[in-house]
Amino acid sequence: MKLAILATFLTSIVAFSVNTPKVDLGKIAQASAAAISIATTVGVSPALAGDVGQGQQIFNVNCAACHADGQNVIMPEKTLEKDALEQYLTGGRNEAAVVTQVTNGKNAMPAFGRRLAEDDIQNVAAYVIATSERGWDDDE
Questions:
Q1: How many other CB atoms are found less than 10 A from the CB of residue 54?
Q2: Which are the contacts of 108, defined by CB distance < 8 A and separation ≥ 6?
Q3: Which candidate among 27, 39, 60, 64 keeps its CA 20 to 30 Å from the CA of 124?
Q4: Contact (Cβ atoms closer than 8 angstroms) between residue 122 and residue 48
Q5: CA-CA distance, 47 to 28, in Å (whole number)?
Q6: Could you read off the pLDDT of 31-75 as tens digits, one per residue?
Q7: How far apart, in whole angstroms, are the C-alpha atoms of residue 85 and residue 81?
């Protein structure tokens, strides 16, 4: 998809720059990178936006036994705090990485992909990221 956008963008520039004898490839590369960045950001973000309130309810029922207050009773260093998620979560601290971890499990954490609906997992991911941002101590 990204390559198709880039190819279309470059083709358009070449097609409309017939009267321009010099083409600044640096500026074309910058514009292409910006276009790809915008296209991928706009295309991904809405799909990953979960419902934090629903996520909290699902978390409390399914996750809080091991992760109450964002902690981890099995592996105490691997909490759901912002710094720990950035350090230990494969893919970094973002909703997509949380979705992958919750769906597939890892190490001592069981997979919830067959227990919870995709929307439920997405909502939990939104809740975990939002709560880690503001701090678990502030969670109501």
A1: 16
A2: 74, 75
A3: 39
A4: yes
A5: 29
A6: 555 545 544 444 334 455 799 999 999 999 999 999 999 999 999
A7: 6
CA distances from 132 to 24, 47, 124, 135 (A): 44, 20, 12, 5
Q: CA 67 → CA 28, 30, 79, 101, distances in Å?
A: 48, 43, 7, 14
Structural tokens at position 93:
């601290």
How many whole angstroms separate alpha carbon 96 and alpha carbon 37? 17
Q: ∠ at Cα 62 (90, 111), nearest 5°? A: 45
**Stated pTM of the model:** 0.66
Tokens of 8: 């279309």
Span 73-97, pLDDT tens digits? 999 999 999 999 999 999 999 999 9
- Residue in the structure block whose two tokens are 């109450």: 68
Furthest CA-CA distance within the chain: 68
